[in-house]
Amino acid sequence: MGYIFASPVAPVECRITARNDPYLGDSPKDLAIQWCSDGIHWHMTDAFTGLTWSSGGTKAFSLSP
Prior knowledge:
The chain has 65 residues and is mainly β.
């Protein structure tokens, strides 16, 4: 998933809500946050591993500057 902002931003948090249906097991167990300023070269800013989810639960991830 990606998003193009109208002007530069510095996100400090990412929130993800787990599925609330029989496919909860499809929710991510590992997650990588990347950024790109030119549409070509991507850079890893944060990674989260071993995630567990409850149905419909939301997790907030603090992001590195």
